[in-house]
Amino acid sequence: MNETLKEAKELDKKYDLLITINENEERGKPIVVKDNICTQGLRTTAGSKILNNYTPVFDATVISKLKKAGFYTLAKTAQDEFGFGTFSTNCAYKTPKNPNDVERSCGGSSGGTAGYIKASKLVSYGLGQSTGGSISCPAAFCGVVGLTPTYGLVSRYGLIDYANSFDKIGPITKTVKQSAEILNIISGFDGKDPTTISKPAEDYTQYCSKDVKGYKIGVMKQFFSKDVPEEIRKSLWDAIKKLENKGVKYEEINLPLQDYVVPVYYLLATAESSTNLAKYCGLRYGLTKDLEGHYNEFFSQVREEGLGKEAKRRVLLGTFIRMVGYRNAYYLKALKIRTKMIQEYKKIFKKFDALIGPTMPVLSPKFTEIEKLTPVQNYLMDASTIPPNLTGMPAMSIPVNKKGLPIGMQIIADHFQEGKLISLGSAYES
Amino acid sequence: MEVNEETVRHIAKLARIKLDEKEVEQFKKDLSSILELFSKIENVETSDEFTIQPVESNNKLREDKVEESLSEEEIFKNTKHKEEEFFKGPKIK
Amino acid sequence: MKVKIGLEIHVQLNTKSKLFCSCSTDYKKPNNKVCETCLGMPGSKPRLNQEAVIKALKLAIALNCEIQDKMIFSRKTYFYPDLSKNYQITQLEYPLAFKGVLKLKKKEIRIRRIQVEEDPAGLQHKSTCVLIDYNRSGIPLVEIVTDPDFESVEEVKEFIDKLTTILDYLGMHDPSNFTLRADVNVNLEGHPRVEIKNMTGTKNIEKALNFEIVRQKIILESNQMSMQQTMHYDAKTSSTIASRTKETEEDYGYIFDPDIPVIKLDKNLINEVKEKMPELPQQRIERFIKDYDMKEQDAYVITIEKATADVFEELSKEFDNDYLLKWMVGPLRKVLNYNNLKLVQTGMSKEHMLKLLKLMKEETLTPRTGEFVLRELVVKPDDPEKIMKKLGFEGVEKKELTKVIEEVLTNNKKAIEDYKHGEKKALQFLIGHVIRETKGQADAKEVAKLITKKIG
Prior knowledge:
The structure holds 3 protein chains of 3 kinds.
Chain A: H1 3-15, E1 18-21, E2 29-34, H2 61-68, E3 71-77, E4 97-98, E5 101-105, H3 111-119, E6 125-130, H4 136-142, E7 145-148, E8 168-173, H5 176-186, E9 216-220, H6 230-245, E10 249-253, H7 261-276, H8 295-306, H9 309-322, H10 328-351, E11 354-358, H11 367-371, H12 375-380, H13 386-391, E12 395-399, E13 408-412, H14 418-429
Parallel strand pairs in A: 2-3, 2-6, 9-10, 9-11
Antiparallel strand pairs in A: 1-3, 4-5, 6-8, 7-8, 7-12, 11-13, 12-13
Chain B: H1 5-14, H2 21-38, H3 72-76, E1 82-83, E2 86-90
Antiparallel strand pairs in B: 1-2
Chain C: E1 3-12, H1 50-62, E2 66-67, E3 70-71, E4 74-77, E5 87-90, E6 97-103, E7 108-118, E8 122-125, E9 129-133, E10 140-146, H2 153-169, E11 180-188, E12 194-200, H3 202-221, E13 229-234, E14 239-242, E15 255-256, E16 263-264, H4 267-275, H5 281-291, H6 296-303, H7 306-315, H8 321-338, H9 350-361, H10 367-379, H11 384-390, H12 398-411, H13 413-420, H14 424-437, H15 444-455
Parallel strand pairs in C: 12-13
Antiparallel strand pairs in C: 1-10, 1-11, 2-6, 3-16, 4-5, 4-15, 6-7, 7-10, 8-9, 11-12, 13-14
Helix pairs in contact in C: 2-3, 5-6, 8-10, 9-10, 12-14, 13-14, 14-15
């Protein structure tokens, strides 16, 4: 058995990071992939019991591209079921443990990938996926780099949908440069996903050495409130000062409509996901049972058994707000607010090159603490990572401390300005 | 906003998810509190403009060309519910 | 008692590939033209077929609709084994077009909306299970919704026939592979509406409507209360049957489909399509009346099928128009109807038809024998002369026939006398003689005509 495979089994045993390991001893560069990205011939579950025996017959576009660039999928990583969660505690298979402290969460929903990249000595490249912050959050909690690209930059073909107008696939790596390398490979227009954008290709690695002198940064004031632990605020300000020494200018700003980002996000994301999950009913693939009884009974029982509690909660919620009588006040209203938010953020980026703030308002919580959170408290945890996901703008989380539990700095830029994220991130790193 | 058991059962039926009484009670509480959180959005002034995808795509539509379909092996790979060349499902009548 | 009927018609668009994937629309074995998209596999994404949009646009233009400036697809979510995603991609708030009109002979029918959507899979019901064929899943459909402007089943039939002709002229109709499905709303004026869902084919629609109208009348006449309800048509018993209310209680929870970008229908595109529109049936009728001096009724009949009108125009260049027209609206239409075939479904070429016409014009074939040859030609196309010989109609040339008649008349002077004295049987006798002499080849009517002409 080769070293990489050996390490994978060890890390999985130690930290419960992987759902499926690719036992084939492949050649090339290993990458660990979140389990909601389809890998042909290799089991893909999206962290859910309802897909526990599902083997895709096609590769996601990002996987095909990575293969062409010499990568192979080493393992499929643990995640919150379908992406529903902030702590990867909603995985039907195993709950990944933070390598920095095994009593704490890796963050979510791409917890398995982030945890693996942190713990591994041999693998530096991973794929995560974000709907409301699922790349940034685990990157922050585990202490690695996570890059959430602009919506439409990377093909979603082969990504098992959570919310189609929010989902993005992005790299989770040890360094900023590695994220830029992966972005080079996976980005670009794909005919199989009509929501991808046609634009001239870029070499994102060139931004690693770009001078950030003169960059104007907006410091997101609302994320530095007294409720946020002192060490997070301190680490962030130290990071901002470091960037200031490199010639960056900053100004504190208030994000517009911040009170509404959590409700608008959850309204739209659950509306979309409740329709995306309708297909899981025991026909043609996935968890099933014997064909006894009437089809309504059959569907209901398969879904009852195969979907976890959070998945059920979100499907019920999403179904409710799409109903006649509620649809206008909830679903359609949220769509209109989304327009307003994008317009407001576009205005901000006319003035600033990027926005900076703590990725998460807390340090990685203990599993015992997470258990006590109500659904609403859970959802409010996403308040800082949701804004760029709602507006489709790119974001990066980069670790800004070396001691203690990891703390992530979130950098947000305008649509297709990944280059600025990479420049700033690299500038901080160096 | 208050959601009652009746509503939860109705939604569960629409979504084809079987719930026991305990779950109905639990989800009733959950949904009520979540919708409470959501209700504040009515305060936001909006125009009629709405956004479906946050970034507008700029592509042409797909050309009407036939491409190879999946093989028999591939389409039935993930299920045992098959009869000859048909997929099998639970009865309707 | 006035009847009000509204239609929701689903027509399959004859694109090469499906609406949201590149699987072929030409399938033979069950489940052999399916892919991850039309099977609803996780991770698959819909890719809209441009040609489907163009075809739907052409139909909307032909029905005089107001084309919208943008079109948005929606998800209609409900659970049923024929939906591969348990939602159908269709259109709600932003369909392709609104407000069109189709003129019938005596009134106008208003088209409320036209939308594009995907077809579900095909189901076969068994006692313990259902068999599903996803070949049909994802086939592009156009849904045409009318206002409840119909007041009779005849009007409904006329509408469907006219719609079929328009589709034919737009190149969107293959008679050997044409399915028209419809839901209808029908009520007696002032009384609740009944919806009959999911009927296939004109005949079933007519039968269902006829049955339902009578059913509602009976209820009313016996002073009972009629109910608003949903029904389906049972072809076996030719009756409408109430559907279980369960099936109709769904809240479809529509959202805009976030996988499909908004489709802009800008003026340039619409004008481009308008300019490339083929001649429509009404325009052709008007042109035939003007250019060929045709009667309206003939023009109407001959343009019902585009192929027939095409053949007329081509053959009219080298054949007597009046004769040609008479034959096409007469014997040709009769034989095609009898065989329940459209002209395109026969293998008959215009060369075949031209030859047959020539043989008839020069009286090598009589109208009677000509029709026999036509019947054969329609089901087994071949050189009409070959068919003529095969059927034993060597044909009697006029010259020869005249000779035979003269001979018979010369040899049967008494019969001529008898006929002149009012004995009708004498004529039959003479005709019989002639036919015997021509070994049965001569046409009785023809002979009678020639004899009476000769003897006065």
